[in-house]
Amino acid sequence: MNKFDVIVIGGGIIGLATSYYLLKSGKKVALIEKNEFGSGASCACDDAIFFQSKKPGINLELTIDSIELYKSLSDELGIDLELENKGGMVLIEKEDHLKVMEDFVKKQKKFGLKVDILDRRDVIKKQPHIRKDILASTYCKEDSQVNPLRVMRGFISKSKKMGLEIIKNNIIEIKEKKDGWKVLLEDKKTVESEFVVNATGAWASEIGKMIGIDIPIVPKRGQIAISEAIPSLGETNAWSAQYIVTKIAPELDRNQNEVYKRLGIGFALSQASTGNYIIGSTREYVGFNKKTTYEGIQLILKEAMALFPIFSKVNVIRTFAGLRPASEDGKPIVGEVEGKKGFYIAAGHEGDGIALAPITGKVVADLINGKRVRYNIEELNLKRFKY
């Protein structure tokens, strides 16, 4: 049978979450993936559900609701997702960054996020291996982490049991019909549906071209290093304020080292349940190049050792890179395409795909089922990029 209610294109965590929630709503779903599941970004990322990087608004609102969905997903999917609420700290090294972060924290608190500024003494209490001249940090108890590989495995296993049709093939053509869409595959077979969801991450613009639309999403390479398993270094996961400040106060970026700017170095640190530390990351515009570089990994580890000197005694056991789907304005693109009835986009989450996967899948399923969602979802629609 080649007819379905919905065709989801893309087997990363967003496509898998969308398929699951559509199946849960009673839809007959086919998922098309040309490579391995999660081969774009979802298998080459960190594990963060990070509230503190979000500006007050829809992204933060969605993250808050997404973590609530995660809390029940382990039971729903029948697999331990290794969801942990460790809390998180944004490490502040410069006075001008402190002023920016103090203002940012005030806005986040006003929005309802429980986040505070810690002085040096309290930072060292929570992170005893941090450099002793650290200036300050933010702290949010809600920051969490989850194992993206286990999340995807859970979605795949449960969705198969619910009737998901998985099609491993390349798409040659997408045609609009009077009553829906027809997708031509490389093996000359076709599949048809009333609805199509483009959840192809960094490749979303390529799928968009097939139906004559421009989707402003480009790949942004993120390089990551993995340490040997070691005892915990502190209470929480940690990030550098540099990356957040660069986003919310770009005028302070002018004095940053040009190499750091080109590579988009933004330190991030979390520990997996196995004891290995995940150390990131670069944010580079290098097209679809997924190779790691000596330069990128060297600078990531240099940042790690500068903030946590103990890392000079820790071995790195592997490195990898993934392609984050970056939209033009930093927000995901979610919703039906204007003038293309039944064609939806769920892509452009950049580094928030893991955090936002459940809520994105649920929102798209609700929209396709004609349900009202409580968010101002028009804020995420593709039409916001019309000039």
UniProtKB/TrEMBL annotation:
Cofactor(s) listed: FAD
Biological processes, Gene Ontology terms: glycerol-3-phosphate metabolic process
Flavoprotein among keywords: yes
UniProt key word Oxidoreductase: yes
This protein's UniProt keywords: FAD, Flavoprotein, Oxidoreductase
Family according to the record: Belongs to the FAD-dependent glycerol-3-phosphate dehydrogenase family.
PANTHER family named among the record's database cross-references: FAD-DEPENDENT OXIDOREDUCTASE DOMAIN-CONTAINING PROTEIN 1, SARCOSINE DEHYDROGENASE-RELATED
Protein name: Sarcosine oxidase subunit beta
UniProt source species: Natranaerovirga pectinivora
